[in-house]
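Supplementary notes (optional reading)

For those who missed the lab, this is the record we used. Protein: Small ribosomal subunit protein eS6. Length: 127 residues.
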Amino acid sequence: MLLVKSGRVMWSGSAVGMTNKLFNLSKEDDVRQYVVRKPLNKEGKKPRTKAPKIQRLVTPRVLQHKRRRIALKKQRTKKNKEEAAEYAKLLAKRMKEAKEKRQEQIAKRRRLSSLRASTSKSESSQK
């Protein structure tokens, strides 16, 4: 933990975990209430205090960003699965069409060769 002495007040530029350990806090406790604050008193102005920024503080906003990040990840995964299934379907359809086309070509070749064979037999028998 980093402690910096600034005037009469001790500043702690610490992380949440360090503050939790220092004050023996649980995860449910609000760390911001236990941070060392420096009073700022100026003449003619309201008295206020200044506190160091707490690093790695889990706020509702941080949790919201995390939820959004996870939701986007799930959405991407779902979309990719759907697109992969659609592509597999298209690929299967094209393979089937190619197979049918090839079968037609083979059948056509067989018909032509059998026609040639039958005509050549008939010609040879006529001679």
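If you only remember one thing from this example: Strands lie at 3-6, 9-12, 38-40, 48-50.
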